[in-house]
């Protein structure tokens, strides 16, 4: 579709929906707060609004339509359709969060049961489902760490947080925002975070270690318990970023490695849909000593009824409105219930099998490599360094060309510690045939890069739009973050 | 049975893949995980429900223990509002392509980029501001970030916050602005508006809500903006966009940063799961530089006249700079942004105006009718109210319980004697009369 | 997408969904009725089934995605999304049709109210919502006509039904099937069915006249009352095919022209979605004298409760299981309620305005014509005769090329009485901009036909598949109406 | 307000279009409609509900007067069955592209053609027959047409029809086969199966149901096929495809035409709105020629290896030949065909087998348990039952009413003393026990 910007579809006087008339006397607003000019919103009939968005949806590559193994670290898996039905049911969709407890026993029970299941999956004591996302859960964990140390009179002393370069950027960013100095460990020759660097970093100023494992490289750090011990040894807390938990469900847990806190992303490991980038849902798990600091209220059960406990004086308070992203809690609950313990283990094993199978196929492509050997769990950060040196084609160019074949492809977070990186994570949802096809696409593009590098650099050829010139996006004189700004700067 | 969600769990396929890789078993892949860290037992979880029908029954039984606001008559608001959700909003946001897309690039996900760009653009028209972010989590987060943006922009560490703010939101602000920003409260007068206050050179921002936590519309905003600007502070306003079909956009009254929640614009209440936050500013590079969120912008392509999209000023985010970026950015609430865009496109300027007028009129009607019940006192009756008002009812818990028996959720409890009552376009005159009748009855 | 046939996606042992286990002792079937070989159905995981069908859906051009004015006679209009929600509500979706009446008062009320509204719209006495479609309603009407004449002892004598060439083929086909000889009136020089031919045809053998008005040409027959009178004059019944009622809602009715029966298509005029070709829904309206013959049971109201009346001895009986295609009755009911009398009249007027505007644009295209002048209501059967004579490009070729632009295009029913026909019907749902765009596409293709006829004949270029060779479809040795037949004939 | 469904009702656009055409008003277009035929008043219809929210409320109030089978425990079948509908079936058939497509050609609607072709192909595997039609309206129509096909094929005018057929279906057959085909009934024995009968040279077809109206599976079908074939008659069998994961396909027992309803394969009950009919034959041109329905087939395209689709043998339909075509063809029930295809693809061979086994076992369990209740007699207890069985209960109406008070719809009333009870995979053992307990209680 060559679909215009929605403002270009507007025609005065048209309407997309009717609104109830007041049916009671009108109220005159004082001039000071009365809107003067009507907002320049589009004026369209209902079909035309719908058609516009249906066309845009068709120009969007969700899990439901593609082989979504190309967005590594995102754990793109199948989100069962049946779970969406529970969420659109009015008995979830039309619940107000301030309803009396007797009218929401069902949803409270789901929260309560979900918390117990995630506690078992992590081995930790309690879990808050309030955070809005993985990053929000990281911030929640930092806030609890801060409150914990403050409660012990060490709030000012402990002003450093240690993380690693292959942990998600939010670990560093949230710690910084919470007022901490951030120390980032670089990988050693094996691809693990450098334990010597950690030894040098820990001390009385250490508030916490925030670490992912397996890291974004897909490599599991076998000395993780030592990391935790080192931090504990100086009185710090250890916080496990389990955004990438998909490969280890039922295999190993935060508790066994000694962590005090962890978080999960329900929209990754636990299948809730990614929704174009949220709403997501995070879950923060804590060991017993951190329970008093959990966000409130918590959901409790007295053997007969479920209720909210807001009387938590040491709590860090609210991290969002109400209890959590309920829709995703419901979906994730249903997903776990459909799988059970054995199913979750199959998820993990198959995700890891798929990843290793895909790695096996990718590494057969000339020009592709994976630094630090082949030991990977659920994802791999690969490199096109050789291909780039041979052809001058960047990983980013390859990704754009891959779009012509109807698949995603992601390089990595900045900085590109792995040169010409790309990150694939197949999860358990894709079939062998899917993996074969994805590898074949990359092999095909790599071959194109060798035979006709300029062709690859000129991609896309098969997308809605052609190659974008991004220079204006960083130029304040030209950037147009809204149509209003675009009209002002470029059309008038 | 091979689980329907795990195609390669099928034993023959699994064996074929292992053989292709050249390993004996999946266990080989886990060699890096030390034995001491292994969980050597199955997880202790409920038995799986492997048939879809039984799962539906199981969930249906749980859902059956809820009574929702289409079954009871609800006047609950206080941050989560029962506006009508157009069917087209649900249709668009349940399209599998949007529902299951994530963080693709502009070529694979052109439609997602455009839909979000259009959302921010429609919000920009409603707000009369040029820069609007890709949604953040919720209105709480938006306020927290807007205040942090003001602090970074001004280099100052105090914010003056209206006391007409919800307790939960204030709790979030306290946690989020700690340790480096101090909050001072602006008291509220008998009219429900911000009382007089002074601004000094340490103040980064004055923060108001519009309408505020009592449903009152601040009418002295332009004056307050001048007061703040005179001392180099910014005016930050949290505004519910649903009201802006009739209320003047805060930017036209002098606000520098406008923020809020878009749940009203097409999201279901969903037990608090329908929230998303917006932050808007003028197109001033120094202010734009303080956004932690992604901003999407139009860019030309190789074909003249074609619109491509991309990230505006990416090198301020934590994706690009880790701890040197502004706050953090992650998965937030994009689909609710797309939905709000659909909502605004359906409503158009006229729809937004009509809706605003209906809500204003019905709110006032409810205030007048409830206020006429003996023993009920409407607070701030002189104020301009949009959608909400507080009432003193004596024993709030007793009243709520009594009305619950009439299948009425009468309002959000503010304190032992006060309720916050919410009226939207979904509440017909009959609904309001039903509430008033019930209150009379249970108090009679 | 280059999506394989679903059997090609199968891999042994995979499953798309789990089924409850019995939980009670198994039953052994006798060998005589026990299935021996399992059916060769696809074996796929759930995501893969979903993905396959989502891709196929994206390769299908519904009203929601295109400017659907190109399927004349089909009345492709916007089907409001909100109405779909009522239908997916469990209080419709999960109702069994044999439930006790007290448990289905809501749905019975909808049937009852819908019947009254359609009775008012047609001016006839009662309406049955039981027929499955417009054609099924035609057959229902024929069956009632047959029963009526039989009840008067004229069943054998009246063995002819008269129809017209521009009435839908089902009028002729259903009459024939019901045992009647069919007489078809051809259009006169004005494009109206020839009244002289009718005069010649009517007589004691005449059972009924089955006629559309406006006909498929879009031309309204101004002498329709005379037609009815002529048939009444010989004791026959007049039956109005109102599949094309969209242009005359609230303007003129079956009753005013004297008709004894009529039918509507809820999936045309009354907005229910076309669903790839059904389920549709028809409505048969009858004058008072035909009420005893209506299909049973009927829905009645005693002032307090709604109930079913099955005690109708002269009824033609059931024409389908249960009461009707309930989903479409619900949708059509909601649609009428959203419009009311004034809204329906706006629908009619706007549909006619849109059609005349589109005609105005189309007739500006060199090579396009509309036989019999410009008087049209809601649709037009056009002709490319001039263009064909100039270029050798057939109407069908133009339709295929139009598909490259993402729009539908329909020629007409056989026989091609209008040479090189095409039939457009814009309905009220499309905007002026849509009509301009559609006309521009046809103008563009007509220009292509003149400059490069072979290019147009080689279309499509932009569709999922390329030009199809249909010869095998009529050859019993080669045709493959199922994959099973294809494998046998072509792959083994 | 310009109505949201009618964009060009907007007055300025309307005026612009009229001006472009060069006419004064819309009235000019209606010049052909004589004044005498005009309705010179507005239609007498209820006032419109122009806001979507109020429409939702209005419909909600109507729907609220229904009690559905997720609220009550229903054992109703008799032609419309409560099987589990997989969520993916609903997801696919509610996709706007499929929901709102119609009769496009193979290029615009390639996906629709393929999806329907795949449906008929999967049915063909289940039935072990090579030709299956694009769905007709419902099982009633399918049986009527199948019998007419047999009559045309044989040139004969009598059909022998099992008496184990539902009364409504028989009513449809009588109307549809009149005036030229005569129906003779085959009686039913104590086992619930067809009794012995003779076939003569006037007989076009012997017609059985599988399972039949009492839920009984005809075990002598192969024998009956031989009997029919010996006198040149065809065996026509109406089979519910849901049973064919465990039951032998009728074609393997000698059936010439197999037909039935596919509501069981993924359609909701929808108060009788979920029906669609199928008809299947072997790939014999003379038999294929008798189909009135459309048949979709694969065809090659200009690109080798690519599959296109089109109509097989179009020149037998009324679209092509008007009254010279076979019966008639029009809009029927394609979307339910696509849905049934999704269902079969989800289930696969194993799922169909497991489902059949579960239904067989639970049906027998229900028969045994109910049969043990004093005063209840299960009919045809020796027969093989799939999903349904009849029970004599004394006063059927009284029992139904008493159980209704327990929120149980106990069965379809066959006559004053007999109920037809339906058990599917949706009925757990607990559900059956609940029914039995309730029957005991109300009869105790």
UniProtKB/TrEMBL annotation, chains B, D:
Protein name stated in the entry: Glycine dehydrogenase
Organism (species): Embleya hyalina
Ranges in a coiled coil: none
Record flagged with keyword Membrane: no
Gene3D superfamilies xref list: Aspartate Aminotransferase, domain 1, Type I PLP-dependent aspartate aminotransferase-like (Major domain)
Taxonomy, superkingdom: Bacteria
Record has Oxidoreductase as a keyword: yes
GO MF entry, a single one: glycine dehydrogenase (decarboxylating) activity
Domain Glycine cleavage system P-protein N-terminal: 5-437
GO BP term (any one): nucleoside metabolic process
Database matches in InterPro entries: GcvPA, GDC-P_N, PyrdxlP-dep_Trfase, PyrdxlP-dep_Trfase_major, PyrdxlP-dep_Trfase_small
Entry keyword set: Oxidoreductase
């Amino acid at each position: 579709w060559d679909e215009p910007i929605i403002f270009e579809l507007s025609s005065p006087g048209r309407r997309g929906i009717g609104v109830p008339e007041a049916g009671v006397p009108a109220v005159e607003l004082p001039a000071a707060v009365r809107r003067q000019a009507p907002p320049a919103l589009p004026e369209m009939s209902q079909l035309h609004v719908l058609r516009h968005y249906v066309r845009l949806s068709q120009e969007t590559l969700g899990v439901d339509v593609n082989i979504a193994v190309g967005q590594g670290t995102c754990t793109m898996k199948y989100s069962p359709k049946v779970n969406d039905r529970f969420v659109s049911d009015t008995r979830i969709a039309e619940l107000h969060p301030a309803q009396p407890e007797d009218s929401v026993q069902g949803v409270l029970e789901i929260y309560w049961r979900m918390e117990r299941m995630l506690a078992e999956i992590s081995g930790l004591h309690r879990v808050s489902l309030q955070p809005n996302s993985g990053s929000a859960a990281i911030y929640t964990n930092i806030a609890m760490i801060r409150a914990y140390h403050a409660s012990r009179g060490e709030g000012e002393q402990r002003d450093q947080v240690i993380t690693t370069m292959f942990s998600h950027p939010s670990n560093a960013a949230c710690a910084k925002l919470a007022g901490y100095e951030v120390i980032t460990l670089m990988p050693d020759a094996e691809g693990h975070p450098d334990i010597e660097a950690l030894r040098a970093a820990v001390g009385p100023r250490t508030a916490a270690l925030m670490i992912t494992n397996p890291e974004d490289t897909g490599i599991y750090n076998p000395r993780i318990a030592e990391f935790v011990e080192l931090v504990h040894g100086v009185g710090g807390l250890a916080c496990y970023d389990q955004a990438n938990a998909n490969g280890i469900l039922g295999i190993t847990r935060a508790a066994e490695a000694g962590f005090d806190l962890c978080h999960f992303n329900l929209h990754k490991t636990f299948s809730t849909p990614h929704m174009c980038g949220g709403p997501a849902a995070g879950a923060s798990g804590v060991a017993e000593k951190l329970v008093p600091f959990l966000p409130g209220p918590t959901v409790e059960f007295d053997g007969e009824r479920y209720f909210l406990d807001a009387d938590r004086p040491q709590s860090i308070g609210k991290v969002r409105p109400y209890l959590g992203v309920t829709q995703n809690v419901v979906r994730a609950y249903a997903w776990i219930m459909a799988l059970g313990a054995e199913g979750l283990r199959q998820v993990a094993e198959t995700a890891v099998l798929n990843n290793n199978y895909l790695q096996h196929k990718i590494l057969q492509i000339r020009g592709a490599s994976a630094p630090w050997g082949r030991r990977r769990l659920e994802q791999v950060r690969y490199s096109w360094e050789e291909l780039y040196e041979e052809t001058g084609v960047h990983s980013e160019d390859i990704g754009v060309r891959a779009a012509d074949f109807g698949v995603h492809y992601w390089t990595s977070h900045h900085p590109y510690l792995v040169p010409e990186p790309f990150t694939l994570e197949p999860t358990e949802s894709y079939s062998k045939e899917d993996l074969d096809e994805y590898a074949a696409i990359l092999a095909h593009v790599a071959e194109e890069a060798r035979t006709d590098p300029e062709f690859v650099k000129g991609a896309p050829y098969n997308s809605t739009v052609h190659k974008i010139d991004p220079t204006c996006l960083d130029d304040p004189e030209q950037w147009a973050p809204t149509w209003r700004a675009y009209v002002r700067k470029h059309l008038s | 049975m091979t689980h329907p969600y795990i195609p390669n769990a099928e034993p023959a396929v699994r064996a074929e893949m292992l053989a292709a890789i050249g390993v004996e078993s999946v266990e080989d892949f886990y060699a890096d995980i030390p034995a001491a860290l292994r969980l050597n037992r199955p997880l202790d979880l409920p038995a799986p429900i492997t048939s879809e029908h039984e799962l539906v029954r199981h969930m249906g039984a749980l859902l059956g223990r809820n009574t929702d606001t289409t079954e009871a008559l609800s006047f609950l608001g206080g941050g989560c509002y029962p506006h009508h959700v157009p069917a087209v909003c649900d249709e668009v946001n349940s399209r599998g392509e949007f529902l299951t897309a994530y963080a693709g690039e502009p070529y694979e996900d052109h439609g997602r980029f455009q839909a979000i760009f259009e959302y921010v653009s429609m919000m920009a028209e409603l707000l009369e501001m040029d820069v609007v972010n890709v949604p953040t989590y919720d209105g709480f987060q938006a306020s927290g970030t807007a205040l942090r943006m003001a602090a970074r922009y001004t280099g100052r560490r105090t914010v003056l916050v209206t006391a007409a703010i919800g307790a939960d939101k204030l709790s979030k602000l306290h946690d989020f602005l700690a340790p480096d920003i101090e909050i001072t409260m602006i008291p509220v007068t008998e009219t429900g508006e911000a009382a007089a206050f002074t601004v000094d050179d340490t103040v980064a921002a004055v923060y108001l809500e519009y309408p505020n936590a009592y449903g009152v519309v601040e009418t002295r905003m332009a004056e307050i903006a001048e007061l703040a600007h005179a001392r180099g502070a910014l005016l930050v306003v949290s505004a519910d966009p649903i009201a802006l079909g009739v209320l003047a956009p805060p930017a036209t009254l002098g606000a520098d940063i406008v923020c809020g929640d878009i749940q009203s614009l097409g999201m279901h209440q969903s037990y608090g799961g329908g929230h998303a936050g917006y932050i808007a500013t003028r197109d001033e590079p120094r202010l734009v530089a303080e956004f932690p969120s992604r901003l999407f912008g139009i860019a030309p392509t190789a074909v003249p006249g074609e619109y491509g999209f991309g990230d505006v000023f990416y090198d301020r985010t934590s994706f690009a700079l880790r701890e040197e970026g502004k706050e953090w950015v992650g998965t937030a609430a994009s689909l609710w942004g797309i939905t709000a865009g659909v909502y605004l496109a359906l409503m158009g300027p006229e729809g937004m105006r009509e809706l605003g007028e209906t809500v204003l009129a019905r709110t006032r009607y409810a205030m007048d009718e409830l206020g006429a019940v003996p023993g009920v006192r409407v607070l701030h009756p002189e104020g301009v109210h949009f959608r909400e008002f507080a009432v003193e009812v004596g024993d709030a818990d007793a009243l709520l319980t009594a009305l619950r028996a009439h299948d009425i959720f009468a309002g959000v409890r503010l304190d032992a004697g006060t309720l916050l009552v919410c009226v939207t376009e979904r509440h017909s005159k009959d609904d309001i009369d039903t509430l008033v009748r019930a209150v009379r009855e249970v108090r009679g």
